[in-house]
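From the shared-data thread, chain only:
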Amino acid sequence: MKLQSLFALLLVCAFAFLTVYPADAIIYGKRGDDEATIPWAEGIKHWEPGPGAQFEIKGDLLELHSQGNTGLFFNHPDTNPAELTDYELEVSARKIGDDSKYFHLFTRTVVPTKDFYFVEVSYNSNTISMYEFRDGGAHEITPGGNAGRPKRPDSKDTKGGEHYVLTFSAEGNILKYSVDGRLSIVVQNNKWTKGPPGIGGRGGQVNYYWVRVDSLPEQGLQNIPSTDKQLSVDSKGKLTTTWGKLKRGF
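Structure, as tokens:
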């Protein structure tokens, strides 16, 4: 009986660990003492700047400046970004100065600045919202429209800025957006079905401490050697890796 109880406890602990630190996530930047990260100085080559986006790496920090609805878009060399479908993007980010009025996250980016989904934390309307961007124009898909937008929550930042942990996920035709761990918007939309995630804004500067990309599908991966220095695909088609091996590959 004691052996069974111990085994059950180990299973619970293992499940909890995998829930917090999923094996198929890629983390860029510095997240606490988590060793499963890729430094920005190395990981930035996995991101493609969109039109009007400029960035600077300062140690563990990524400084991103954007003009227009643009930013950096996930472009890992062992993926086919245009074929990515279901995934979750999470960031720890801080808005810097009054010139920056928005946090933006992008998903299923068909063409940067033209066709994609994005979510927004606005300091103009003090709300959060979700959009389908097509042919260069934003079409709000927040449930209830403008009147249905959730209020922007107060930042918990104590370091002279506005900091949030933002999460944007796409699974099938379901889009979900969370702010500081609180689910804020859920939308059903099937306009865009493929394309990489992205980070950015609409003018000004946003600093990124870490960015997590999770659960990449099989069809987004191509020509991946099964060596200790490369990535591998599990039976469910998700991107998996041992972080120590991945880091030794740089």
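The first helix runs from residue 2 to 20.
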